[in-house]
Amino acid sequence: MKYMIVLLLALFSTLSMAQETAPFTPDQEKQIENLIHTALFNDPASPRIGAKHPKLTLVNFTDYNCPYCKQLDPMLEKIVQKYPDVAVIIKPLPFKGESSVLAARIALTTWRDHPQQFLSLHEKLMQKRGYHTDGSIKQAQQKAGTTPVTLDEKSMDTIRTNLQLARLVGVQGTPATIIGDELIPGAVPWNTLEEVVKEKLAAANGG
């Protein structure tokens, strides 16, 4: 995971400098695309729900203290229930205080150590109105029936990776969801979300 962070930091620095120097070669552009794609879709530290072998994968940048994320999250779960060829990757992006970071770390560590327990905890964390406290996070763990976890630096590594990745793909706040080749900011209405998913899923199926 630290290797991924180093690569993304180097890439972010290189892209910044490239604005003042010569453009990338086609080979360099391809390497950059591959690195970003791997970080988005193939990072085992990022929780995922839905299809095990999806035809379409959404990437959702989210925050457990974000009210708009809490509006969007049930719709994402509804998408994977309604469309069995769709998966959603969840990338916590804790912008809103220390409790946001703590909730993200506990969720990520639960995914790593007890992945089958993640979704229940994720749902309970998202159901909290307002900002979390240490107490509300513990209460969410208890309600979800999750096994207690010990936090270590790996969860922070994942958060740092998510922060760098968000900058690289143009995320400016949460929620933000990548669907196919589109970045959808904010908590869009259900009809809008479903239409984009249907369009991208049809394209993935060759339609």
UniProtKB/TrEMBL annotation:
Keywords noted in UniProt: Disulfide bond, Oxidoreductase, Redox-active center, Signal
SUPFAM superfamilies from the UniProt entry: Thioredoxin-like
Transmembrane segments annotated in the record for this chain: none
Domain (Thioredoxin): residue spans on this chain: 13-202
Keyword GTP-binding attached: no
Species whose genome carries this gene: Salmonella enterica
Gene3D superfamilies linked: Glutaredoxin
Superkingdom of origin organism: Bacteria
Signal peptide: 1-18
Gene Ontology molecular function: disulfide oxidoreductase activity
Name the UniProt record assigns to this protein: DsbA family protein
